[in-house]
From TrEMBL:
Protein's UniProt keywords contain Transferase: no
Pfam family, one: Cyc-maltodext_N
Extent of the signal sequence: 1-22
Keyword presence, Signal: yes
Keywords, ordered alphabetically: Glycosidase, Hydrolase, Signal
Annotated transmembrane regions: none
Name used for this protein in its record: Glycoside hydrolase family 13 protein
PANTHER family associated with the record: ALPHA-AMYLASE FAMILY MEMBER, MALTODEXTRIN GLUCOSIDASE
SUPFAM superfamilies: (Trans)glycosidases, E set domains, Glycosyl hydrolase domain
Organism per entry: Flaviaesturariibacter amylovorans
GO molecular function list: hydrolase activity
InterPro entries in the cross-refs: Cyc-maltodext_N, Cyclo-malto-dextrinase_C, GH, GH13_cat_dom, Glyco_hydro_b, Ig-like_fold, Ig_E-set
Domain Glycosyl hydrolase family 13 catalytic: 132-529
Amino acid sequence: MNRPILLLLLLCLRTGLLSAQAPDLYPAHWWSGMTMNRVQLLVHDKGRDLSGLQPSVAHPGVRVLKIHRFSNPRYLALDLAIAPGARPGHVPITLRGAGKTPVQLQWMLKERRPGRGTRFAQGITPSDFVYLAIADRFANGDPSNDRVPGLREQTLNRDSMYHRHGGDLQGISKNLGYLESLGVTALWLLPVLENDRPARTEHGYAITNHFRVDPRLGGDAAYRELSDALHARGMKLVMDAVYNHTGLQHHLELDPPDSTWMHRWPRYTQTTYREQTLFDPYAAPSDTKRMSDGWFDDGMPDINHHNPHMAAYLIQSMIWQIEEFGVDAVRIDTYTYSDLDFSNRCNAAILAEYPRIHLFGETRVFGSANQAYFNRNVFTTKYKSNLPGSVDFQLLYFGIRPALTQATGWMEGVNSLYNTLANDFLNQDATRNVLLLDNHDEPRFLSVVGEDWEKLKIGYTWLLTCRGIPQAYYGSEIGMRGVAHPDGLVRADMPGGWPGDAVNAFTGAGLGQKEKEVLDHVRKLGTYRKTSSALQTGRLMQYVPVGNVYAYFRYDQRQTVMCILNAGATAAAVPFSRFPERTAGFTQARDVLSGSTYATSGTLTVPPMGMLVLELK
């Protein structure tokens, strides 16, 4: 190219006569017939000055209500009103200005996804069994997307827990039969949106594009295919969302409309991680501010929810993802760190659009009252949360863990489990909380209980019979080990997800005897739970522990299930008459796992460090 032509092209780029690429639009499209029929369309043109341009829309039923301009002239925001009868199709939007080449925006209105509340956005309930997995670590279904040109991170090293391993959505789709065999009814994946960072992109929590699935996981098409495959099996899709922060390489951080979209500090300031400052009547305001406005991590800018444009961007992105990909429930990451008023607004917008969807937050706090503060509760505090449920860390930290690792005392061991469950009165509906033994941030349960395989079985027995929505973490059903730090093995690969793996959890090849026993245990209970009305929707009654023995019942008009744990080192003889309210009128108890039967007129012997699940007849 000769020099005069090159200079002319550079001049055109600088003056906006020629753009390096089409403007980016957020959201990329919307739908006709939505409850949210006013949308704020954010326009970002990396190569053009948009100041002074005026929009016009050529589509019946769509009109511009207001224009928002920013100190960064590469952005515009258009408030669009979409009439109830607006037809789906292309919505040409033209930006014009005196002496400037018109800018054409190709936006779309789509038809809504069919089956809202029945085929998607169904919610998850205590009838479900949720399986949590990391797409990068479960199975590699398409090696061609292991590295994607143009993305910052090109590492691929399965020998390191802190590099990408190549797992993807296609690998999960190919193994849905395995999940179904466990009794699983819902799949929750760590965030699958684009994380275009230089390193550590496997976990997904540093989002760089809220409207694009990471192409290394298979992209938008693979996510839609997974959603469709789940729904075809009668299963559900749970999305992991992040209200609190984004990735350092997000366009709103690299090239922000102005300086108010993220929280800025004179120097890097991390959150205190102290949720108490949000409800402590004696809290210092500076501590409260740092809790909510401090950055969770130096690579994750803290979002300013008080900026109305940022708030609109996030709320619209949530609804866009649910409608676009057919999501059934949403787990909300780092829930306690977001501005709580914004969280209520975002939750309300989602629930208005999808009344049956379930929202549950990561409220990783210490104390039942602390946890209840962040979801629907019985408190009369100034702030009232509308979050339907939480990940129930209290029953992990102060429930099942101490029950299996502490000697029994007045507040220790099985009494800690009993006491913590008794605190359910703080919630409007604790059955909407999600139970867990472990997850991507917690040590594997087998490691917690000192690699005692019987205790691992007890953990799963409790998980699948207690109140609430049970959530299993991938690989723990075959006894995967690991702690969060320093080895990072809590995020190790699922055996069998890669060609050449010596062990294959999906087929059982190479599994040891103990691994097979736990897997079989989970399958039996998970399958039984799918047809047990008492475990799915029944009430719970627990009895004060006596010594090391703790018992609770799940029951309804059709079925009664008795669950009894002996956390001691010797067998315990327990008369059925100890539980008169729940055993009266029954003559027989059948062991759900072994098939053994017991006469309810006699005494039950519970083995040392053992747990029985009995269906009363």
